[in-house]
Design goal:
Elements: E1 10-11, E2 33-34, H1 47-53, H2 60-75, H3 90-104, E3 110-112, H4 113-118, H5 121-129, H6 138-149, H7 157-169, H8 176-205, H9 225-238, E4 244-249, E5 256-259, H10 279-295, E6 299-300, E7 320-322
Parallel strand pairs: 1-5
Antiparallel strand pairs: 2-4, 3-7, 4-5, 6-7
Helix pairs in contact: 2-8, 3-5, 3-10, 5-8, 6-7, 6-8, 8-9, 8-10, 9-10
Bound molecules: protoporphyrin IX containing FE (HEM).
Length: 324
Amino acid sequence: MRTLDLDGLAVVDDLGDGIRGGTGPDLLTDPGWVVPPVPEDVPEGTMAWLRARVARFSSGEAHARRRALAIGALGALGALGVSDGPDVNAEALRDAARTRTQELLSASGTVEVMARVARVVPADVLAASFGLPVTADSAGLVGDVARAYHAHGEPVPAADHALTRLVADCGGTWDETTAARIGLLVQAYDATAGLIGNTAYLALTGAGAGAGAGLAPEPPPEPSAALATDRLDQALRTDPPVRGTLRAPVDGGDPVRVGLVTSDGSLAFGAGAHACPGQAHARALAAGVLDALLARGCRLVSPDIAYEPSVNLRVPVALEVVCG
Ligand code: HEM
């Protein structure tokens, strides 16, 4: 599978100490720069169709219309006001994610959290909240689509097949409303898995405890709702799952990569017209998963960690834990 070739891209910031000339994140709100466009005239039944119909790869009026559809679908999840975004019943999402994680952790022994939990719970809970059928295959189908979402240019038959099944689950109509719901599941898939994985790693290694050099390690803090939220905030600041995104000049020209890692985590969910509309949902889903992992007393089998090969995402490949 070919992903958009990042090797030749200019990097607008250096992901290091500072953002060169302050130009990096400014591009996200600069009308002279847009999300790199995708072909619009593409057949139904293909990943190119999904890219051509979602807010993520659109600009201008089409973007506003498609983003409103996405926010409408997210907003239908509940009625607790969240400023500058869709309404979300955060507690209901968190409860649902906690319950689903408890079910998945019920087997004793070692659990690989990324494959068994972090890549399953957000997709299952969101799909259920959209009224879509949830089966043992659901999260896997979303994963098949997500893996090809950014792979512009080359057909991926397995992804087209999975997309066709998800469209059927949505009622079988290839329209923008269907694309919006599938787009939400796909956007949530890797990013929320990364948020869960990075937060779990931080919480379970005690890296978040703030132990100073030379001090005896402190006992792990008691699990609580506040603990999960605190560790999430910390992971979003120090180890965010989405590290960069692309923008291109509005009048054509090569895309550049805009880094999203800052010292205060203020760009973890992006900025500008495409800023993540699922932020409150992602936090609630990840918090529910963390609640369950912490309450079960899960411990990492090994502190060694590897990340998926991706320039813009930081998602652990695997996190094995023993619970109970
Ligand atoms: C429930 C989970 C999530 C949902 C439903 C969701 C949904 C979306 C959608 C629909 C967009 C495109 C918006 C547009 O183009 O107008 C988006 C963008 C974005 N999301 Fe999320 N997202 C989720 C989780 C996350 C997480 C966990 C992160 C990282 C911490 C994240 C970071 C971003 C960023 C950085 C963008 C902007 C990309 C850009 O400007 O190029 N999202 N999200």
